[in-house]
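Handout, page 2. Input:
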Amino acid sequence: MLNDLDHQLFLFLNGLHVGWLDPVMTFISSETGWIPFYAVLVFLVFKKYRWKGLWIILGVALLITCSDQLSSHVFKPVFQRLRPCHDPLIQDLVHLPYGHCGGQYGFISSHAANTFALATFIWLTMRKFYKNIGWLMFCWAAVVSYSRIYMGVHFPGDVICGAAVGMVLGLGIGWLENKYLLKDEVQ
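Output:
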């Protein structure tokens, strides 16, 4: 039943495609397209934390490594849930903007796990200095995550579970960072 609902929701969301949005979603889904955004985040970190910003960068590196490895090398091989574009029940109905499907398994979405981990971590470590950073980061993570459904490579359940795993990791590493490394800086 839950699987049927996930399939139906996927087909609805993936079916909302329009031609002009294909290159936009492809860009949003790309990893390199966000380099300027990451550069601004690094600038904001060092602007407020100076040399202690290195701890935040190290925390982000640890966080993304954990999130990516957990999603790619634990969840996907253990659950072996086919991506929508590989699922024989619906693969002929999936809109793939440029025909690229990715690996065989999609549970959980690494993009969702990584972006929500980063969003949660940045919110925890930077909210004292930038009051609206949470809105920006979580909206960004949600748009990137939705792009994976639009691109036809993840079910909504893959994205939701990836986001949850990412948020848990972001909360854990962000809490440790604030408690032990930034204790004089963040309340």
